[in-house]
Each structure stands twice: as structure tokens, then as C-alpha cells.
């Protein structure tokens, strides 16, 4: 079976009884645009017939759409015509979007750019400016004179047919095109459907970007796979008024929603008492939280903020996944709620998970539904027992075919074999452990900082630093080699929230707090303007990129407290690098070059913009 056959079967079964509704917030008044399953299928067949007429089968098409229904019908139209869809953001949600799109066009041999009439002229000019107008055709699908749906004929599509490509966000490397087949798509939607209780009908609410795996697979395509209704808004509308998300859950009696941790944190901190008072969230039974570390503080903040409105702790469903596995690898089943346990910090630094009543809290990311998950020593490839922290390896029908035109990278990532020859496995590059059937994720293997034999997880340092003072926002912790590994924390600061403290006092406060919590008496703290911490379009911290900007003298530095070794290393970067002053000397370092902040929607949320 193909995903097209599944969609067509659901359109036949549900017809005009199930629908997608795009919700727009106009000064607090919600307006709706709606397409039923039958109408979506009709539009997809017409778009598919047009693409077939252009002999576009097996070609790649870059989809550059704002949030809304037009993207959905265009994406399905590509699947209906065996065109390889490549979703990507527009500049209004990511200022680097066109640079990213140019790279994708060249990497993926894109023939068509599909968009809407509101963006066609801008994109046509851009293609001309970068010299791609002769090779790539820009088409506004909402104004095409499309053939009738009956002119569409089902092409030869099987489970192994390439359906679309999801370009990775590039948090630790250059973005790569993950090749997803119809079988991958069907299997992962089945995994999600089983996690939410296998409903025959239901209502979902969301706002996630459709060009990311969680937004596309977890939010946009799940309803038509399962046979439920979806009400969704744009990411920009959510950022501008986060109460909209909760209002939609209340108004449409949603049973499930999906989002990364930072979105729940943003919502808990920004929705006012008056807005909470009018909500009824008792219908919500499944709130998937994934795509980044799930924080206990966020879970408690949301429950505390919205508990009186009916938000139940049991609704929490932490999960783990990645684009290379389509989306979901492990998930918390409906009604189970989060599993939070404490583990000895020192043992975790030795890559062992030892429960301890006064240890650090970790949130479980659920259990495999049908995928195989192993914890494997990345050097010896030995499969390790419960409680051992090592690389997470994954096998199952959701695992992608590989990376587009990157044979060596595909072999490295998708061809993992254990010491006893079992495989192939997807090597995720993430570190974690299994305990009592639950997966706990501790970090990225490339991001772990090793100091004097200790393994420090950067997200733990970053979270602790943010709690040190209310002026602090996003952070990136990493190691710098300077006669040994030295810990550096680049921390965004909002000057208007400093109160009576100076930037230097706050930097030293962070140093003291991390020294107390992690035993780090010698570390560097660099305070930067908002946007100084590099992030992907999905809000993931780009630690290696932030490190490169720091050493290259291109961060918008407000104040730096540097160890002598790191200061000497920074001086080697030449003009513009942070001034070489050793701790404890306090000094303010002017920014030599302000780095334009990427204002992706998820990043704006994480920054508290």
C-alpha cells in the first residue's frame, strides 16, 4: 500500500464528515477556512494531474508556502503524481530561508518551486537574482488552471517509492535531505496513531510549521491517516498570541496536540490570568512533547498554570524521534503521563544511570511502539545493558532510505551493525539509556564536553544557567580546546531585565551557580545579545556554530568572563574576538560585529521575543 491509497480510502470513508480547518486570529476574532477530506482529495488529484502533464514524475519540487490549506493539497498533489516533495520555510518565518532554499535546489536537483500567488513574484525575482530562473520554474498552485480531478490517473506507486524529502535542521552538521518512502510514512503515522490510543475519530489542534517533521507528520498528516479533524493556525499567530493555542483546544474540544518543550514553556509564561479564566482544557488527553529535551520545570509550569482550566498531568506524552526515523521512535502512551526519575549526577558523568533520591531529574521519552531501540557503545559497537549511557541505535520500518546523494554519510548513519553482526541500525548520534523499558535521552554525542575525564551534558549546564537570573535566555555550552578542554557558556541576556545588577555581576553569578552544581570552578561565561546563540529553524541550539562565531569574533558580546586559556585562544582569532582578560577580572566586551539573529518562529518562541 502507498500513502496515496490510504488518503484516498479515508476520503472515500469520511467524505465531507471530516475536515481540515485553518484558523486565523484577527484581533482576537477567529476566522476559519475549511476543506473536507473529499475536497482535499479532489484538489490533490487535480494538482497531481497538472504535475503529470508536466512530466514531473520522480522530479523534486520545493514547496515554499505560508501556513494554510494550500500547502497540504500541493504536498498531496506531489505524492499523487510521484513527485518528490521538499517542504521548506519562507522568509517570514526564517530570514535565512532563501539561502537554505538555494542550497536545497542545488543539492536536490529541484525542477519546480511550488508556492502561492502571494509569494510567487518575490520568489521569481529571487530565482532570477541567484541565477536559477532558467533551471527552475516557479508556480503558484492557487491560481493555476488545473485539470479536472477525473483527468488524474494513479501512477505506479509502491511502499518503496520515494514520497518526499525532509531536510535536517543542521544542529550539528550541514542540512541533509532525508529520503522518506511511502512505507516510512505509513508506518510512522501508524506509530503515532497507536500512541494516541488508536481513535476511530478525534480532534487535533496545532500550529507547528509544516516544513518540519513534527509539524508535517505529527500534526498535518496524522488526521487524514487516522480519520479525524484538525484545526490549525500559523506559527506566527501562536508567537504573537500564545493563548490562541489553548483557546483552540478549548473551543474545538481537541483531544490531542503536539509541540516541542519550548512552546509549552512559552505558553505557560505568557498566557494571562484573564485568558486562563475562559478556558476549558478538560478534553485534552494527549499532549506530545518532543523534538528537544523535555524539562520537568516546563511540565510543572504548564500543569500549574492550566490545571484549574482542566489541563491534566496525565495528558503529558513525552516522546523521542528524528527526521531520519520519519518522526517518532518512542512515545508515552495515552493516559500514562510523564515518567520522571532522579539519577546520580556523578554516575551520569561516567555514563551510568544510577537512581538516586537527591539526583538530577530526567524525563522518560516513552517506549518503542514497534521500533527496535538499542543502546550501543559507539566505539566497540557492543550492545549495552539497562542503565548504560551510550549511543541510541534504531531499527524499524520508519527508518528512512538514507540521505539524498550522500552515499558515505548514508552508510555511516544508516548502516550501523552491532559487534555480533546484527543490523543495519540507524545510528542516531544521540546519547541515552534504557531503564525498565523506558528511553531516557541525555544529549548529543558530538556535544558532550569531557573535562578531566568527566562527561558533561551541555543541556544540563544551559538549563541551570537560565535559572540563575531572570534576565537570562537561551544558552549554548560547549568545550574549547586550549591546552585541555575548557567549558564555555554563551548566554543570551535581556538588558531590560537586569534590574539593578550589572552584566558582569550576572556573568559571575552564573559562574558561581555552575561551580556549585557541577563542580566547575574554572569556566568561561560570555553574555551576548538576544539572537547571539545559534539555532536551527526548529529552535535547536547550534553549539558548534556558536563556538565558531565566538572564536571568530562574530558574536554580539555584552560581557565576557574568560579563563586565561580561553582568553588566549580567543585572542588568536584576531580583531573582533572577545578581549583576553582572565577570570576574575570583570570587563565588558563590545560587540565587534552584530550577528543578524535568525528569527525563525521556533527561535522567537525560545528567546521569549
TrEMBL record:
Domain AMP-dependent synthetase/ligase: 25-404
Name of one Pfam family that matches: AMP-binding
KW Protein transport (keyword) present: no
InterPro entries in the record: AMP-bd_C_sf, AMP-binding_CS, AMP-dep_synth/lig_dom, ANL_N_sf, FAAL/FAAC
SUPFAM superfamilies: Acetyl-CoA synthetase-like
Alphabetically ordered keywords of this record: Fatty acid metabolism, Ligase, Lipid metabolism
GO BP, one annotated term: fatty acid biosynthetic process
Keyword flag Lipid metabolism: yes
Gene Ontology terms, MF aspect: adenylyltransferase activity; ligase activity
GO CC list: plasma membrane
Transmembrane segments: none
Family: Belongs to the ATP-dependent AMP-binding enzyme family.
Protein name: AMP-binding domain-containing protein
Amino acid at each position: 500500500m502507498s500513502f496515496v491509497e490510504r488518503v484516498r480510502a479515508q476520503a472515500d470513508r469520511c467524505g465531507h464528515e471530516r475536515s481540515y480547518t485553518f484558523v486565523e486570529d484577527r484581533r482576537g476574532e477567529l476566522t476559519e477556512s475549511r476543506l473536507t477530506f473529499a475536497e482535499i482529495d479532489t484538489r490533490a488529484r487535480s494538482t497531481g494531474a497538472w504535475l503529470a502533464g508536466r512530466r514531473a514524475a520522480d522530479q523534486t519540487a520545493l514547496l515554499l508556502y505560508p501556513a494554510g490549506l494550500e500547502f497540504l493539497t500541493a504536498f498531496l498533489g506531489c505524492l499523487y503524481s510521484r513527485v518528490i516533495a521538499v517542504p521548506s520555510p519562507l522568509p517570514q518565518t526564517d530570514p535565512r530561508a532563501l539561502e537554505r532554499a538555494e542550497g536545497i535546489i542545488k543539492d536536490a536537483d529541484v525542477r519546480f518551486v511550488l508556492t502561492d500567488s502571494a509569494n510567487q513574484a518575490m520568489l521569481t525575482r529571487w530565482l532570477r537574482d541567484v541565477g536559477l530562473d532558467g533551471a527552475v520554474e516557479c508556480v503558484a498552485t492557487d491560481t493555476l488552471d488545473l485539470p479536472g480531478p477525473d483527468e488524474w490517473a494513479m501512477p505506479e506507486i509502491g511502499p518503496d517509492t520515494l514520497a518526499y524529502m525532509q531536510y535536517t535542521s543542521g544542529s550539528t552538521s550541514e542540512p541533509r535531505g532525508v529520503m522518506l518512502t511511502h512505507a516510512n510514512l505509513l508506518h510512522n503515522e501508524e506509530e503515532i496513531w497507536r500512541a494516541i490510543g488508536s481513535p476511530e475519530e478525534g480532534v487535533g489542534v496545532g500550529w507547528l510549521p509544516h516544513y518540519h517533521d513534527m509539524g508535517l507528520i505529527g500534526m498535518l498528516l496524522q488526521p487524514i491517516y487516522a480519520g479525524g479533524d484538525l484545526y490549525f493556525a500559523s506559527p506566527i499567530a501562536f508567537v504573537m498570541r500564545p493563548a490562541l493555542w489553548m483557546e483552540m483546544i478549548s473551543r474545538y474540544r481537541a483531544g490531542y496536540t503536539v509541540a516541542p518543550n519550548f512552546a509549552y514553556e512559552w505558553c505557560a509564561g505568557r498566557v494571562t490570568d484573564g485568558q486562563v479564566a475562559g478556558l476549558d482544557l478538560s478534553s485534552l488527553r494527549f499532549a506530545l512533547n518532543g523534538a528537544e529535551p523535555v524539562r520537568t520545570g516546563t511540565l510543572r509550569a504548564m500543569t500549574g498554570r492550566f490545571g484549574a482550566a482542566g489541563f491534566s498531568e496525565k495528558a503529558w506524552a513525552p516522546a523521542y524521534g528524528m527526521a531520519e526515523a520519519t518522526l517518532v521512535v518512542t512515545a508515552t502512551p495515552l493516559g500514562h503521563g510523564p515518567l520522571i526519575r532522579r539519577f546520580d549526577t556523578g554516575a551520569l558523568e561516567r555514563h551510568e544511570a544510577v537512581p538516586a533520591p537527591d539526583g538530577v531529574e530526567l524525563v522518560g521519552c516513552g517506549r518503542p511502539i514497534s521500533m527496535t531501540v538499542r543502546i550501543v557503545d559507539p566505539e566497540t559497537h557492543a550492545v549495552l545493558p539497562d542503565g548504560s549511557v551510550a549511543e541510541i541505535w534504531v531499527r524499524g520500518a520508519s527508518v528512512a532510505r538514507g540521505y539524498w546523494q550522500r552515499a558515505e554519510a548514508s552508510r555511516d548513519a544508516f548502516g550501523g551493525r552491532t559487534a555480533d553482526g546484527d543490523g543495519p541500525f540507524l545510528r542516531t548520534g544521540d546519547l541515552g539509556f534504557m531503564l525498565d523499558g523506558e528511553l531516557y535521552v541525555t544529549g548529543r554525542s558530538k556535544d558532550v564536553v569531557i573535562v578531566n575525564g568527566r562527561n558533561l551534558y551541555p543541556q544540563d549546564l544551559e538549563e541551570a544557567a537560565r535559572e540563575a537570573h531572570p534576565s537570562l535566555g537561551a544558552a549554548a555550552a560547549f568545550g574549547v580546546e586550549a591546552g585541555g578542554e575548557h567549558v564555555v557558556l554563551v548566554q543570551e541576556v535581556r538588558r531590560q531585565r537586569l534590574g539593578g545588577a550589572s552584566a558582569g555581576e550576572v556573568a559571575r553569578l552564573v559562574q558561581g551557580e555552575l561551580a556549585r552544581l557541577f563542580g566547575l570552578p574554572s569556566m568561561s561565561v560570555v553574555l551576548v545579545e538576544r539572537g547571539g546563540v545559534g539555532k536551527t529553524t526548529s529552535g535547536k541550539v547550534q553549539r558548534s556554530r556558536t563556538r565558531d562565531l565566538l572564536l571568530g569574533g562574530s558574536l554580539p558580546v555584552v560581557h565576557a568572563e574568560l579563563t586565561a586559556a580561553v582568553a588566549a585562544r580567543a585572542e588568536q582569532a584576531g580583531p573582533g574576538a572577545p578581549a583576553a582578560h582572565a577570570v576574575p577580572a570583570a570587563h565588558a566586551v563590545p560587540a565587534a560585529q552584530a550577528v543578524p539573529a535568525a528569527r525563525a518562529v521556533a527561535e522567537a518562541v525560545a528567546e521569549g521575543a
